[in-house]
Every structure is written in C-alpha cells, then in structure tokens.
Design brief:
Helix 3 crosses helix 10, helix 4 packs across helix 8 and helix 13 runs antiparallel to helix 17. Helices cover 81% and strands 0% of the residues. It is an all-alpha fold. The N and C termini lie far apart (69 Å). The protein is built from 17 helices and no strands.
Length: 452
C-alpha cells in the first residue's frame, strides 16, 4: 500500500499551511479575474475613461491610509475578542467622520473651481469609495482575527467578480463614462455587506463601551503616530504619478500610464508576494538561529533579476504589436509607456520582494528615510519635467529614470543588509544581462522620441 510522504502528511494536517493556502488561492483568483477582464474592459472603455479611473483610484488609495488613522491594523493584534469588535466600531466611526470631512472639502473645491485632475461628478463619489475601502479592510481584519479564512478568500473572489461584472455591464452603456468608478464602488458595497452579515457585527454592537473605546485608542496610539506616516509615504510614492500627470496632460495619457502599470504589476504581484513571504520567513529564521542570509539573498536576487530581465526584454521587442492585439488598436501607445518605464519595473521586480530585509534586520527607520527620498525624487521628476517641457513621453521617461535611480539606492541597502557578496562569475552574469537590457531599452527609447 502506498505510504504518504511524511512532509505531505504534515502539510495536509498543518492549520497554518491550510490557512495560508486558502488565503493565497483566494488572492490569486481575485487578481486573475480583473487581469483577464482587462482584455474586455479595454474595448469597452477608452483611454480617457481609464485615465479618470486611474486618478480616482490613486486619490482613493492615498486617502484610505488616512481615514481611520490606521487603527484597522490594531484589530488583528487585539488581546480579547470584545476588543477586536470594539476597534472595528472605532474604525467605522473614524471612517464616517472622515467621509463627512471629505464631502466638506469636495464642496469647497467645487465652489472655488479648483482642478484636482478629475471632474466634480467623480469627486463626489470619492468619499463613498474611500469609506467602502476602509470598511472592507476593517471587516477583513476582524475576520482574520476570528480566523474566518474561507470567508476572506471567497469574499475576495466575490468582490472581484461583482466589481468586474458591474464594469462590463456598465461599459455597454455608452453614455456612462464612469463605469469603472461605479463598478468599483458596487464591488466594495457587495463585499462590505457580505462581511458584515457573516461576522455578525451588528449582533455584537452591545460590546461597545465608551470608556473601553477611549482606552483602546490610547493603547494603540503607535498606529497613527508611526504606522500612518510610513504607510502614507509608501502610498503617495506609489500612487502619485496618475494624479500628477492629470495636472499637466489629457486623461488619455493617464489612461495609457495606468494601463501599462496595472498590466505589469498584477502578474508581478503573484511572484513578488510569494517570494517576499518566503524570504521574510526564511531570513528571519536564519537570523534567529545565528546563520547568515548571504546565500538566500543572493540566490533570490539573481533569480529575480534574471526573470525580470528576460520578461522586460521580451516586452520591449514585442511592444510594437503586442499591446495593440491584446487590448485593441486604440491602446497601441501603452507599449511605449511600458518601454519608458521598463528600467523601473525591472528593479521593482528584483528588489521589492527582498525589501522585507529591513524588517528582518530591524532597519525600519532606514526604510522610512528611503521612502521620503523616493517621494521627493518621483514627484520632482514629474513636476519639473512636465512644467518645463510639456511632453508626456519625456515626463514618463523622466519618472521611469528617477524611479530607477531611487531603486538603485534602495537596492544598495537591501543587498547590504541581505549580506550579499557577489563572485566574479555572478558579476559577469549580471553585467551581461544588464548590457543586453540597456541596449534594447536605449534602442527602443530613441525610436520612441524620434517618431513622437
């Protein structure tokens, strides 16, 4: 009779592995759905409409960091179940107050006629979108605390399906220019309703105690003091390009940029998330046992750089026709943006999964200082070039190079704390691959500027 290997038996009966597999499967499926749907949505929505969604979602992602002062992060760390429910109610209360504040700000902006990169109709939908984002995150953290992992996984999939389905249906209504925005809000509301019902939040409202709420706010004050600034910097650094581009150029430029960014980052997140978790766990274990992490860091760096270089070279070579075929003829310019951003995207693929080394080595302050530098470099690269030259291609090129330089600086510290030491053979391999990539990148970039 076949004897099941011991390691497989342990994995099948490991609660941690089962929970991890459940969450990972839900995340992957939830991300695959919008990736596949992009090929349909690109034919229903034009670059201008995608650009408006890019600006809208960027504002939403940044504001969602501020909304509940990061108290949602304290839910999972609660010592008692009553505290977890109490913190969830606290985050919802802060979120509601933040929504009221956003509507006041939106009204003032409307009255003064200030241009923030999107029309007023979208601006008045933004507070609702931010509230649903904050609520879904809070309820998801509560579900995590309650160990309802199947609920989290299925809800992620349902949210993705409802969001994508709404966008496709609204896309057939030609007069509805904001189908991407409305579809996202519908998906969040359905997700929020499902979570609220399944975790019995309303049935536990009797657990709210004003005195205990004030105690929890004080006990978890480190979240708004330390966690909020760090996460806000990360969010601004990642989501500022569409907003800044909308100040200087047409929505179509933002649409091309957002499409290029999303198409490349969704598949990369599959690899990056898994590798990041693997590296964080193994590197922490090595440090705890007094073992070096040199071999682990170097092996992953070379593998990620090799994979990223091959992928980017392939996209650069095929950009003339690939994106037009996949997305439709009106999206041909996406290929140019992919080329201009490729040095940055290559280093993101290589270094981001290894960036957990800052936590492994307790270098969070260094990481925060680097995030400040990243925000300054990226914002300056767009603002200065767009103001002086008024060229979208040159601005995107400048942003790509600035981000590339920043990741070189960040990568230096990652390799340093990762204890990476290259051999002569390693250096030869890395230089060879870099030369091929930079040769193709320079060739295509020159072509883009000569024909623009």
């Amino acid at each position: 009779m076949f004897q099941e290997p011991d390691i497989i038996y342990r994995l099948r009966h490991s609660t941690f592995f089962i929970n991890l597999a459940t969450l990972s499967a839900g995340t992957i499926i939830a991300q695959l759905i919008p990736l596949v749907a992009t090929f349909i949505l690109s034919r229903l929505y034009n670059p201008d409409e995608m650009g408006e969604w890019g600006v809208f979602s960027s504002y939403g992602a940044i504001l969602a960091i501020i909304g509940c002062l990061r108290y949602d992060g304290a839910i999972v760390k609660s010592k008692k179940q009553s505290d977890a429910y109490q913190l969830t109610y606290i985050t919802i209360l802060f979120s509601l107050l933040f929504v009221i504040l956003l509507y006041i700000i939106a009204f003032i902006i409307h009255m003064l006629g200030i241009d923030i990169g999107m029309n007023f109709s979208a601006m008045y939908k933004l507070p609702i979108y931010v509230f649903t984002l904050l609520s879904v995150q809070s309820f998801t953290n509560l579900a995590t605390y309650l160990q309802k992992y199947k609920l989290i996984a299925t809800n992620s999939i349902n949210r993705s399906i409802s969001q994508t389905g709404s966008r496709i249906l609204l896309g057939f209504v030609n007069s509805n220019r904001q189908g991407m925005i409305i579809g996202a809000i519908i998906g969040n509301i359905i997700s929020l309703f499902t979570l609220c019902c399944r975790i019995d939040l309303l049935k536990n409202r009797n657990k709210i105690q004003r005195t205990r709420s004030l105690e929890l706010i004080k006990e978890n004050k480190n979240f708004p003091i330390f966690d909020l600034p760090s996460n806000l910097l990360n969010s601004v650094s990642s989501h500022c390009p569409p907003i800044l581009l909308s100040w200087f150029f047409l929505d179509s430029v933002v649409g091309f940029f957002s499409m290029a960014h999303n198409l490349l980052f969704i598949p990369m997140s599959f690899i990056g998330t898994a590798v990041s978790q693997l590296y964080y766990r193994n590197a922490s274990e090595n440090i705890h046992n007094g073992q070096p992490i040199t071999s682990l860091s170097k092996r992953l760096f070379i593998s990620l750089f090799s994979l990223g270089t091959f992928f980017m070279c392939l996209l650069i070579i095929c950009e003339d026709w690939l994106f037009g075929i996949i997305l439709g003829s009106r999206w041909n310019d996406v290929g140019q943006y992919v080329v201009l951003l490729s040095p940055w995207l290559l280093l993101v693929t290589t270094f981001s999964p290894l960036s957990t080394v800052f936590y492994v080595k307790d270098k969070q302050i260094v990481n925060m200082n680097l995030n400040v530098l990243g925000v300054i470099i990226r914002v300056a690269s767009i603002f200065i070039v767009a103001s002086l030259f008024h060229s979208s291609n040159l601005t995107v090129f400048s942003f790509g190079i600035a981000s590339y330089v920043f990741h070189i600086i960040q990568g230096y510290y990652i390799l340093k704390y990762g204890e990476v030491v290259f051999s002569a053979k390693d250096i030869l391999l890395l230089v060879s691959m870099s030369s091929v990539f930079m040769g193709l990148y320079s060739w295509k970039t020159i072509q883009i500027f000569l024909t623009s």
